[in-house]
Amino acid sequence: MNRYSLNQATTKYWSLEEVVAASAEAGLSWIGLWREPIQEYGVERSAKLVADAGLRVSSLCRSGFFTATDAAERRTRIDDNRRAIDEAATVGTGVLILVSGGLPTGSRDIDGAREMVRDGLAELAPYAEERGVRLAVEALHPMFCSDRCVVSSLGGALDLAEQFPASQVGVVVDAYHLWWDAELYRQIERAGDRICSYQVSDWVVPLPADTLLGRGMMGDGSIELRRMREACDAAGYDGPVEVEIFNQDLWNAPGQEVFDLALASYREHVA
Q1: Positions in the chain short of pLDDT 70
Q2: What's the pLDDT at 1?
Q3: For 20-69, what is each residue's pLDDT tens digit?
Q4: What is the CATH code for 4-269?
Q5: Which residue blocks in 69-212 are alpha helix, DSSP H?
Q6: DSSP secondary structure code for residue 149 in this structure
Q7: Cα–Cα distance, 94 to 65 (Å, whole number)
Q8: How many beta carbons lie within 10 A of that of residue 48, not counting itself?
Q9: Is 174:139 a contact under the CB 8 Å cutoff?
Q10: Burial class of residue 171 in the structure, from the number of CB atoms within 10 Å of its CB (0-12 exposed, 13-18 middle, 19+ buried)
């Protein structure tokens, strides 16, 4: 259980102070943070809150979104990614989660979009390393390829990451997005020390109309979560395991109830 980390997105309507206090009271070591809440609370103030509670930050979500047809817009996004790197360094995490971005508006050029992602990584990776932060490329399920993420498999994420030193760019193994892939376990083995994060939730059916909110509590769906965790372990990953669940019903439930359920479900289905 010393690897367990609750990503604050799982209890979206809980304040940062509430999720930090609950994590500390439960004796946890880690917490996963999101940019918007820590910006609202104050990045340096957030860092102090977490440190004073005796917690470490497993990752900061999220940055990226490199794809845009307009050069000025791409520059704006690069600048925002630099701020995200600074935020990650301030809160004390070495992992910044990157979602690449989907096809630019009106475009069908998926290869060109992926080249934009590669160019963004090339510009940011050396700066991230200077700040003690690794860029963690997250592949999203193919249903999000057009609008959110042109990187749709762990193999595709590794194809990008391996163009850079492992100290600069790694990958995220997110169970919800990757469980379906027949190549998954071979790609986890290939990833080795590039694995920056293992994130867990479950695939439940039927999916809601808003598929972004389709993640379920561990054990409620189809994913072999422990098998995937053991594969990451065998590949050499021994870092935090983040529970990250986007689910409106869970968000609407009392925060402490969701917190307790997530901890129990992790013990039963992941640890």
Answers
A1: none
A2: 87
A3: 999 999 999 999 999 999 999 999 999 999 999 999 999 999 999 999 99
A4: 3.20.20.150
A5: 71-91, 110-130, 154-161, 175-178, 184-191
A6: B
A7: 20
A8: 12
A9: yes
A10: buried
